[in-house]
Amino acid sequence: MKRRIKNRVLSTVLAFSMGLCLAGCGKEVGSNGSEVAKLDNLTQNVEVVEVETKDLDERFIEETAYFSVDLFKESTISDIELGKNVLISPQSIITAMSMTTNGAKGNTLSQLQDTMYGGMEITEYNKYMQDYSGRLTQDKYVDFYLANSIWIKEDPSLHVEDSFLGVCKSYYDAGVYTEPFNDETTNKLNGWVKDNTSGMIDSIVDTIPQDAVMYLINATAFSGEWQNQYEENQINEDGVFTSWSGNKENVTMLNSAEDYYLQDDMARGFIKYYKGGGYAFMAMLPNDGVSIEEYVSNLTGDKIIDTYNNREYLGENVMVTMPEFSYEYDRELSEDFKNLGVTDAFSGDKADLSGMAQSDAGNLYIGRVLHKTYIELDRNGTKAAAVTAVEVMCETAAEPVRMEKITLDKPFYYAIIDGKTGLPVFMGVVNSVN
After folding, report:
1. CA-CA distance, 373 to 86, in Å (whole number)?
2. Torsion of CA 159, 162, 168, 173, to 10 degrees
3. How far is residue 224 from each of residues 140, 153, 278, 356, 378, measured CA to CA in Å?
4. Which of 25, 58, 289, 342 is the most buried (most CB within 10 A)?
5. Is the predicted pLDDT of residue 11 greater than 70, yes or no?
């Protein structure tokens, strides 16, 4: 495959924070047992877009692969160079950012489409994503779960576009919630995240910023058993793993004979399938003399696709040893998106998200893109989850605040006063602090 557009980006679970004002809201009990305000007449007030199922084609796969790899490199290479474990979910990020793209116009829309889809229009990409996500979740042998929601601030100055909600409902099956965006909302939002990632990720936001008006959230959870389970004699509790820093670590190693061998110009690897064969674990070990940083820096979208497509069947002659492991990873992705070419969406005076909503208080723009992941791989299989939160803000035209600067760097007078009357209880002068 040839690269058509240089920039690409991807996602796992995306929370899009932006202000919305909706009428006709009812109350619905969320899966975490708390009461959340939900728009109960969405399909009545919104013209639902007619959905056409469309088979995936080469361009969708190509552009999605490029964006996934570009974002992975941009967002993780600095942590890799520090010896940290990293993990992102392109599916989650792409899903959340695609919902966001449906609310963009003008140059903001062009940058998102060029960066994420290689110039493919979002109206076309929506159809591919709907079909692709449906296929991912229909595997009967593994649990692959996707959930989308839009959380809207109760704000009379915010006016949400019905067409935007219609697209998110039609193609992404997004639930819509209206909330006051206080501490209770934070708990409800995080409860939704925990419920929809099977408890693997318990939160995505610590507090909701005052200027945040909406969150568009995608949650992704995966759980799959190995197609060929490990026997006791294939498990070595006394294995050794040499870390990035050169330290020797005691780990449990899993030994198996796999069918498929992988090789590219810088590494060798294998494929190990999950039950049913619909999902697989793919690993690549850099050749001697090639660092992991160097290998990741040279990855491209077509390279990962070509490596998989050119896998060799060796009939259980690929002898594999790998460690059990688990860890969490989180990163704020806004600077990564900017570096890949999406700049206007994050600018208070340049962003055009008018296809999503307008606010009487000021222009809407993306504040943060929060991403959090978790993975656990052991002798039984793999569990993984991801959440991405895009936080949409309102740029308010606040009056300038008067500021004064006082520096006590020479002799000064002071007093301890009665707060009720202002009478001094103690008074003094400082001439020297030595």
Report:
1. 9
2. 110
3. 10, 37, 10, 37, 11
4. 342
5. no
Is the pTM here over 0.90, yes or no? no
Closest by CA position to 218, among listed 132, 93, 112, 128: 93
Q: Which two tokens stand for residue 198?
A: 């099977």
Q: How confident is the model at residue 419 (pLDDT cuts 50, 70, 90)?
A: low
**Residue 17 — very low, low, confident or very high, per pLDDT cuts 50/70/90?**
very low
Reply yes or no on whether the pLDDT at 51 is more than 50: no
Helix (H) / strand (E) containing 253: strand 248-263
The residues with which 427 forms a beta bridge, in sequence order, are 415
Quickly list H helices, 4-89: 42-45, 58-80
State the Cα–Cα distance between residues 115 and 93, nearest whole angstrom.
Answer: 13
- In whole angstroms, how far apart are CA 261 and each of 268, 312, 315, 381? 8, 5, 10, 20
Burial of 388 (0-12, 13-18, 19+ CB in 10 A): buried
Q: Which of 41-50, 324-333, 345-354 has the lowest mean pLDDT?
A: 41-50
Q: pLDDT tens for residues 208-227?
A: 999 999 999 999 999 999 99
Angle between helices 301-309 and 58-80 (to 10 degrees): 110
Residue 366: φ, ψ to 5°: -85, 125
| In the predicted structure, residue 42 carries a pLDDT above the cut 70 | no
Evaluate if residue 386 carries a pLDDT over 70: yes
Mean pLDDT to the nearest integer, 277-303: 89
Could you give phi then psi for residue 430, rounded to 5 degrees? Answer: -110, 120
Amino acid of residue 233: N
pLDDT number for residue 421? 52
Q: Are the CB atoms for 266 and 133 separated by under 8 Å? A: no
Distant-in-sequence, close-in-space partners of 218: CB < 8 Å, separation ≥ 6: 11, 12, 13, 14, 15, 92, 93, 95, 96, 99, 146, 147, 148, 172, 387, 388
Sequence-distant (≥ 6) Cβ neighbours of residue 51 within 8 angstroms: 127, 130, 170, 171
Q: Which of 225, 176, 220 is nearest to 88 (CA)?
A: 220
